[in-house]
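mind reviewing this stuff:

——
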Amino acid sequence: MPVPRLHPRTIEAVKERADIVDVVGEHVVLKKKGREFVGICPFHDDSKPSMTVSPAKQFYYCFSCGAGGNSIKFLMEFQRQSFGDVVLELARKYQLPVETVEGPQQERLRQQLSRRDKLHRALALAAGWFRGQLRTPVGANALNYLTEKRGLSEVTLESFELGYAPEQWDGLLKHLQQVEGLSAELLEAAGLVVARKGGGGFYDRFRHRVMVPIHDRQGRVIGFGGRSLDGSEPKYLNSPETDVFEKGKHLFGLDRAANAIRKDDRAVVVEGYFDVIALHAAGVTNSVASLGTALSSQQITQICRCSEGKRIVLNFDADGAGVRAANRAIGEVEQLALQGQLELRVLHLPSGKDPDEFLKDHGAGDYRALLDQSPLWLDWQIQQVLEGRDLSQADQFQQAVSGLVALLGKLPQSAVRTHYLQQVAERLSGGQGRLALQLEEDLRQQVKGQRWHGRSSRHEQPGEASQRERSEAEILRLYLHCSNHRAAIRRELRQRELEDFALQHHRLLWAAITDLEETNLGAGRLEAISRGTDSGHDLEDIELPRLLTDQLLLENSALVARLTPLLEPGEVQLAAMAKPLLQLRGTTAALERQKSLKRCRHLLEAWGSQRLETLERCIAALIEEERQQPTESVDMEMRIEAMFEELNSDALRFQELYYSERKHIGHLDQQRCGGFSGQDVIPA
């Protein structure tokens, strides 16, 4: 619908209400610097905070690219929207009256904006009905679960507005239709009811579940989380995405935790609703939870807006799924953490307990003490690399070194990198001083050559991004539909270090696959399959396409649409999978080759930045040294060669790495073209 001409009063009201720090802070992590805020400019390829946001002047300006203006100008540039669209969006956000110069258009616009109000009203009425059901005889078991098993007080039940959805097909539907006069179509749009197949009416989405309302920052109900009481799956069922509920943009508990986060200058992010509820009940009111998805950059930005020091502690479960969730969250903010734009820590509670369990056994004091001692994200990741490895075994020692080099390679040349190199060398050496010094120097050389993580867009050539997307999609399609080769695919991905997919929707799909397989086989067996010590025949019995479709439809319907070509391939795609193992080898080799090519470009650039010391300089230095301190006759040629290698060690190291990488690319080309020997073929 074309945007009507807005009345000047509406435009002025929006300008007055839309705070520049609030608007820019939703899209850029801002850090207070004196009276202003600074952040990474989103309008050019920025690596350092060059954008300044002034609350006093209500103005932003980038000293690198020259972008600047007020709140409306920022959103016009950032979202590529028209002036009218931005003003309307801000008016809706701040609930400001919209006036236009044309009456009929104004009325239609008001109707469009009022739809969201109707959804909020329906959700609020549903929350009230659920609370009422908890206090009836049908809700007795649910109330007992909350008070006895969960140990929640009446104050906590009321504070979080907990309720119960009865075991009825249409209890909520009938109440909201007959008593409140709401249409079934509106309730479906709010995510409260589901249309029956074949068009035979609607039924309640939530049945026989403890109901936890989810609020936005303004305290309005936008959705629900339902906890199963009879063991039926899924254990937790969330509302679907609606016009007022986007999981990746909201955090459970942030409406009540924002002030506590500001006061403590720290946010605690946990996994579950009841972890947040238990923490708030124990007085740790600066805690929030993600909504059944990996922590997104938008959610992290919201948290950072509440904390001046941008301090976040991730307290996820200590199981495999929790570790992966922590690593995914770290991946979202890694660059900001490396640049000092926020402080990220990770807390894993003793004995693998979640916050709810820990608080029952130990109390809030012990929990706060552990929070204060939680390690920085990089220290935690280093510990994860070393966890469970026997460093006396050569293969495990080498695996640890490779993992540590990859982590430390993310750090720029600084005192921080030197600190971590020393720390890691001491741990690897087992306290042997001389060995620690040797290991530190060896790690330093490896990190210099490998300070690159394989995905830098700076070294990417045109077309490589689309090629990578096609290759990753092929691998996932093979995994989903060639079930008898899943173990082989996992081994190949582990061997080539390709398990961490580059594209976000592919990473989310792979994480969902892994969660399902861990549920069926256990994390230990899945790890053994990836290492090649378990045949993994059981993997082929898991109906991944069906299970994933059902799960994603409930949790992330938008992602299902994007992944449909993988979950439901066409005839041409199925025909292309006639020789899955050969296709796998060629595709993984292509992905690895792409990473190697970018690494070559990086090494050439690094080598080109080195200042080479010539032989003449070496000879002159030795002659001067000999003149000042004459020594007995020595092999001058050997001394010159040794000095040349010492002075140019970095450049020579880059040359060696480049040569080795080019040889590896030749081997990968053979694999891609099918010219590899029989011993290279993946066993069926």
